[in-house]
Amino acid sequence: MDLWYTEKHSDNVGITIKTTKTLFSGKSQYQQLDIVETLEFGRMMLLDGLVMVTERDEFIYHDMITHPALFTHPNPKKVLVIGGGDGGSIREIMKHPEVELAVLCEIDGLVIEKSIEYLPTMASAINGSNPRVKLHVDDGLAYIRDHQNEFDVILVDSTDPIGPAVGLFEENFYRLVFSALKDDGIMIAQSESPFYHADIQKSMYHNLRAVFPIVEMYQAFIPTYPSGFWSFAFSSKIYHPTKDFDHDRAKNRNFKTRYYNEELHRGAFMLPTFARDNIAE
Amino acid sequence: MDLWYTEKHSDNVGITIKTTKTLFSGKSQYQQLDIVETLEFGRMMLLDGLVMVTERDEFIYHDMITHPALFTHPNPKKVLVIGGGDGGSIREIMKHPEVELAVLCEIDGLVIEKSIEYLPTMASAINGSNPRVKLHVDDGLAYIRDHQNEFDVILVDSTDPIGPAVGLFEENFYRLVFSALKDDGIMIAQSESPFYHADIQKSMYHNLRAVFPIVEMYQAFIPTYPSGFWSFAFSSKIYHPTKDFDHDRAKNRNFKTRYYNEELHRGAFMLPTFARDNIAE
């Protein structure tokens, strides 16, 4: 039997992916979780029917949500990831020797549990073996309310602004993140597709600018996400993502990156005109 | 009836697009041509079942195959487009006041004819109204053999290296292009997806480097192309695409571009590591 999973990116377009096996399918308190085997992308995790990560292209998303901030902040010792239960962001953060502690705050324990079981290459740093990693199964808002002025970098590794993640795109949340950061802290949040989600981007960047003095959008190609053209919001109290970026530290890093590099760091902020227009003030 | 057109990007993944109407479907001497109406992308042209252009995202491809070369060459007077029968590249070339003549050499007259009929926003400069444009329905190889040392810029606006375009990816063809260019000429060719077509890229860039002293890859997001991550090869006798780029001329251009801009011009050449690796010597 030839089984294809089709994710609609709007009413009128979608990506269709051949699957060979369902590894897990179940419902948590928050959402539907499916992990399937595909021929093109390896194992693939879906939340509420939307592709979150695949083994073949997750390196792009995880390189790009972590390294731009960690090579801009001069001394990132304490990092918080909100969401990101697959563990890929934590795995990349752990490659930075300056980081003393990374905290994963994921609302849905089932995502962590099944990622450890079925996505071991992503979850390698959240399986209990790494003393520099702490896991909290908790609501991100509740967690940061209790941890003010504590983090150098906070990554909002969330799903789309529907379902459990909707609060993570609002100004009140950004204010809490701002005060959970130290005086020179940086926040990164995935910020949807400039091609399909102009309205979400407009309101999200407006909300971010109400809170952070520096807000810049950067881009990455993610083949399994809508349009393949994805973006991240770099929000910061002091450091600018290209002017204050530590080019030499990035260039001399002691680990390989298949997407990120010190040239691309700058190029990622050079946006197509229509993407700049989406967030023009 | 709910009709969806699915283009497979490999045996195991594809894009699926809702169509509402078939405007033209026919076979030329060279290939199958279909033009359909879609809800998401407007009108869409397919050759042998592969998406070539859509009204909604063609601005990206046509900005990026034309403006990087035309803002690098200091005085592009005579430009040749091989392929590109939809007319989008010619439309963009015409925005450069330095260009005295643009020649379109398309092997398949049916593509030109039906683009003028059904894709008027793309074909606006090839419908006979523009005295700076000449059309030749001819094989690109035969044409450049007869026009040596003549062009400032040549754009190879081809389909994939299957069917009628296969010869346009070979070293012999690049040698002919080289000698059809003036002593400071530039050639641009679309060079497939770094994500899906590593093998094609490897051989294509090897062939280009055997002929041109300067060969650089640059990137663009094209949502309706495989993976959404597409590339172009910048090949040149003298001018380097970022060192010799005329930033001020690009910045002060007297026309709007929805994708290209003078910052993105540089950023487009800052590639992900895996894309650089595809074409490493």
From TrEMBL, chains A, B:
Q: Which residues make up the binding site for S-methyl-5'-thioadenosine? A: Q31, E106, D139, G140, P164
Q: Which UniProt keywords apply?
A: Polyamine biosynthesis, Spermidine biosynthesis, Transferase
Q: Which PROSITE patterns match?
A: PABS_1 (PS01330), PABS_2 (PS51006)
- Please verify whether the record's keywords include Transferase: yes
Which positions in this protein are listed as binding spermidine?
Answer: H62, D86, D157, S158, T159, D160
Q: Does the keyword Transmembrane helix apply?
A: no
User: What pathway is this protein said to act in by its record?
Assistant: Amine and polyamine biosynthesis; spermidine biosynthesis; spermidine from putrescine: step 1/1
Gene3D superfamilies to which the protein is assigned, alphabetical: Spermidine synthase, tetramerisation domain, Vaccinia Virus protein VP39
As recorded in UniProt, its EC number(s) are 2.5.1.16
Q: Which residues cross the membrane?
A: none
Under the heading InterPro entries, the entry gives: PABS, PABS_CS, SAM-dependent_MTases_sf, Spermi_synthase, Spermidine_synt_N, Spermidine_synt_N_sf
- One Gene Ontology molecular-function label: spermidine synthase activity
Quote the catalytic activity from the record. Answer: S-adenosyl 3-(methylsulfanyl)propylamine + putrescine = S-methyl-5'-thioadenosine + spermidine + H(+)
Q: Ranges for the PABS domain?
A: 2-237
A Gene Ontology biological process term:
spermidine biosynthetic process
> What GO cellular-component annotations does this UniProt entry give?
cytosol
Active site at D157
Pfam families linked to this entry: Spermine_synt_N, Spermine_synth
Q: Tell me where on the tree of life, at the top rank, the source sits.
A: Bacteria
User: Which HAMAP family does the record associate with it?
Assistant: Spermidine_synth
Its biological purpose is as follows: Catalyzes the irreversible transfer of a propylamine group from the amino donor S-adenosylmethioninamine (decarboxy-AdoMet) to putrescine (1,4-diaminobutane) to yield spermidine.
Similarity comment: Belongs to the spermidine/spermine synthase family.
Report quaternary structure and partners. Answer: Homodimer or homotetramer.
Protein name (Swiss-Prot/TrEMBL): Polyamine aminopropyltransferase
What is the gene called? Answer: speE
